[in-house]
Every structure is written in C-alpha cells, then in structure tokens.
Design brief:
It is a single chain. The chain is 16% helix and 30% strand. It has 184 residues and is an alpha+beta fold. It has a domain of 117 residues: 4-Layer Sandwich (S-adenosylmethionine decarboxylase).
C-alpha cells in the first residue's frame, strides 16, 4: 500500500502560557519548524484572538503546518501534514514541543490517501512547482480500483489523559446603571 501523505496530530499539554499567547513566538516557532523539516514555505498566515489565543498556518509546497493555542489551558493543537518523502514531519514536531515548553505531548500519525498499488507513486507530476503551475490531468497516473473493493483503515484512537487545570476567576466590576424615565 502507498500513502500520499503523513499527518501528525500533536496534543501539547502544560505548555508555556506566555509562549502560547505570543503571536511572535508562535509564528516564529512554526516557521522555523517548517524550515527544520526541510519544507518549502509558500505562505504564512496567523491571527491573534482577544483576549488570548492564536491560530495560524504555514502553507508549504508539501502541504501545511497548523496550530491553535489555548494559553488559558496551557494547551496547543498542532497539525503537520506532509506529502512526499523529503519532508521530515517528526523533526518539526520535536522542535515545536521544545519551543512551546510542552511538559506532556501526544503525537498520532495518520497515513493520508492510501492506495493499493505496488509501483512507486510520483508525489508530484513533472512540471508541478510551488508556484501553482498547472499540469494536465493526463500526466497524473490514476488507479482504476472499484470503490467497493477499497479497504477501510481502522485507526485506533489514542487515549490521552486530560489535565484538569483550574480556571482563573477574574472579578467582574460592578458598574451602576443610570435609570432614565421613559415618556412621561
């Protein structure tokens, strides 16, 4: 069996809350993780939420790295999706665990796009580039397999203990409401 890609799902617990709430730290860590994994970076998009949390994606020619942070829980969810044989997704995962200060981490790897063929599958047709060059569909080999005969991969779900983190109680300011008579 051949797979088109590897998808690492990272659960990062007990991280450095300040790192998870720093747009600069999260963005720099994700970009550096992509570089260390030998990825070709195409685009970088991150968003900082108010009051806290960051979501972002590093689009790479080989697929993507994505993150969502919850600093209030000291938790981050990370995806490292790679196609082909060049990218080293585990290198990116290890680097992110270190940079975000995760005391506990869980990594689940999924094989994506599993096909039943013995011959090596070309990752990208000749002529395809990160710039989005179009390649005629006729140059892409297509497996002729009846849908009814495709096996269903059963992937066990990893059971990860969930840490109970107390939520900080923030006092709410009481603001007097002005009462204005209506009509009269």
């Amino acid at each position: 069996m051949q797979a088109l890609g590897r998808h690492l799902l990272l659960e990062l617990f007990d991280c450095d809350a300040e790192a998870l709430n720093s747009l600069e730290t999260v963005k720099a860590s994700m970009v550096e993780a992509a570089k260390r994994a030998q990825a070709t970076i195409v685009d970088v998009v991150f968003h900082e939420f108010n009051p806290f949390g960051i979501s972002g994606v590093v689009v790479i020619a080989e697929s993507h790295l994505a993150i969502h942070t919850w600093p209030e829980y000291r938790y981050a969810a990370v995806d490292v999706f790679s196609c082909g044989d060049v990218l080293q997704p585990q290198t990116a995962a290890t680097y992110l665990v270190e940079q975000l200060g995760a005391a506990r981490a869980s990594v689940v790897e999924l094989q994506r796009g599993i096909f039943l063929q013995a011959a090596p599958m070309p990752h990208k047709p000749a002529g395809a580039r990160a710039t989005g060059a179009k390649v005629p569909a006729a140059t892409v080999p297509v497996a002729k397999v009846p849908v009814a005969r495709l096996p269903v991969a059963r992937v066990p779900v990893a059971r990860v203990p969930v840490a109970r983190v107390p939520v900080a109680r923030v006092p709410v300011a009481r603001v007097p409401v002005a009462r204005v008579p209506v009509g009269g």
